């Protein structure tokens, strides 16, 4: 098949596979897809997948790393604009909402799969380093930052999953609590 796109505009195969994997994981979850579906969705024969990725876990981890980079980029842009804690809250929840099924798979695989668990721990350590760099005078040690990050992540997932609605509660209280956690990350102790 001959591509009519100029060479510099063509996406590399690995990029197309990653984009296809992100869509598959977010539509079907980790357990609902396979490497053949990912390859076909990207427009390739199934065997092409293994030229670029070891297995489904490998591409899932790469998809998670990309998801994290995208979240960092969005939040960094808002922080550079001195966005309010509520605006940061809304951005985090929106990012989690856009990847509901993927996030569910991530939570499950973090318990069941050592490689995903290690990738998630590495990502969280990068978040801590990022926060230490952004707010060097926060007065918080890494364990304290991790505690706030874990609360932030869980509450963002709960808001994205509409758990407050399921309990008959107003999500505004959850958003305000998340904004307070974000505020804790931004100001010195």
Your description of this structure?
This protein has 189 residues and is mainly α. It has 2 domains: 43 residues, Arc Repressor Mutant, subunit A (Orthogonal Bundle); 131 residues, Tetracycline Repressor, domain 2 (Orthogonal Bundle). The chain has 10 helices and no strands. The N and C termini lie far apart (60 Å). The model has no long low-confidence stretch (mean pLDDT 92).
List keywords for this structure.
Arc Repressor Mutant, subunit A; single chain; 10 helices; mainly alpha; 74% helix; 0% strand; Tetracycline Repressor, domain 2; 189 residues
CATH top level of the largest domain?
Mainly Alpha
- Described by the principal axes of the CA atoms, the overall outline is globular
Give the CATH H-level superfamily of the largest domain: Tetracycline Repressor, domain 2
* CATH fold assignment of the largest domain: Tetracycline Repressor, domain 2
* Main sheet attributes: strand count, strand direction, barrel closure: none
């Amino acid at each position: 098949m001959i591509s009519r796109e100029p060479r510099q505009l063509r996406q590399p195969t690995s990029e197309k596979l990653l984009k296809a994997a992100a869509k598959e994981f977010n539509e079907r979850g980790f357990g609902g897809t396979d490497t053949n579906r990912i390859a076909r969705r990207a427009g390739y024969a199934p065997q092409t997948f293994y030229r670029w990725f070891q297995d489904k876990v490998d591409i899932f981890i790469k998809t998670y790393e990309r998801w994290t980079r995208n979240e960092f980029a969005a939040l960094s842009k808002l922080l550079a604009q001195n966005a309010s804690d509520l605006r940061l809250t809304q951005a985090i929840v929106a990012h989690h909402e856009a990847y509901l099924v993927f996030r569910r798979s991530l939570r499950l695989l973090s318990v069941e799969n050592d490689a995903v668990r290690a990738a998630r721990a590495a990502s969280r350590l990068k978040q801590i380093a990022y926060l230490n760099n952004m707010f060097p005078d926060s007065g918080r040690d890494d364990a304290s930052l991790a505690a706030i990050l874990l609360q932030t992540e869980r509450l963002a997932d709960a808001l994205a999953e509409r758990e407050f609605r399921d309990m008959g509660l107003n999500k505004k209280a959850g958003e305000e609590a998340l904004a307070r956690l974000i505020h804790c990350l931004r100001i010195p102790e």
